[in-house]
Structure formats: structure tokens, C-alpha cells
Amino acid sequence: MASRTPFCRTPIVMLYNYHSAMVYFNIFLNEGLRKRYLFKYKSFKELLNRRTELQSEKDDNLPVLTQAFSKKEVRHMFQKFQSVEIETHYITKGMFAQMRHLLPFIPTSIKSRLHKYFGWNHIIKVKK
Asked: Which of 1, 49, 50, 75 has its CA 20 to 30 A from that of 64?
């Protein structure tokens, strides 16, 4: 009988990045300040939770809970693992909200690296 090989030998986790363009520009500036939702909720975390997954919100269901984490928080969560590799990915013009109109003025050499700092997803690879 042949042994079964696991599909993925290295566990991979995706968590949202708290220090992302999505959080700074779309959630805080656009939803929070421009649309004034920041003053409706008790905290910034509640604003993030309630104004991120808007496409999932319907009249008959509750909004999806969204949480985002800094790299420091991710490292703390996975501190018991021998090796933790964090890569930050995924950035779109829409995440910059109204600030996206400034993107053409940013040099290409800087734009090509923005995802490493302001991407929406942390991809975490760990080894036990």
C-alpha cells in the first residue's frame, strides 16, 4: 500500500495586514473620515471590522468580522514555531481610495515595492 503524501508540507496562513494601504487610505481616510463612520463606532478596530467586507453584507445577515494584524503581532502569534517567514502581498489602486489619483506621480521604482509594505495580505509560512 502506498503512503499518502501531504498536499502541503509547510503550513501557510494568510492574515490581513493592519499597516496596509487598505487600512490607511480606504478604511481610515475614506470610510472613517470622509464618510464619517469613524464617529459612529466605538473604536478604530470596530470601524475596520464593519467597513471592510462590505460586499458580504446583506439585509438578512450580519457583517463579516474582519481583523488585521501587524507583522509584530503575527510574529508573536507564531512565536512557538521554529521558523516563521512573513511576506506581504496584494495591493490595488482601489485600496488607496481617493489618494489613488496621486499614484501616477510616484516613481515606478517605488510603486513596484509598495506591496511589501502596504499590501493587504500577510502570507505566513511556518516550520515546527
From this structure: 75
Cell of residue 35, nine digits: 464618510
> Grid coordinates 515606478 are at which residue?
108
- Of 48, 16, 22, nearest in space to 124 by CA: 16
| Contact residues for 42 (Cβ-Cβ < 8 A; gap 6+) | none
The one-digit pLDDT tens for each residue of the chain (128 residues) are: 555 555 557 789 999 999 999 999 999 999 999 999 999 988 998 899 888 876 556 656 666 778 999 999 999 999 999 999 999 999 999 999 989 999 999 999 999 999 999 999 999 999 88
Distance CA 78, CA 128 (A): 10
Q: Distance of CA 109 to CAs 57, 89, 105, 114, 121, Å?
A: 37, 17, 12, 9, 21
- Report d(CA 50, CA 28) in Å as an integer: 12
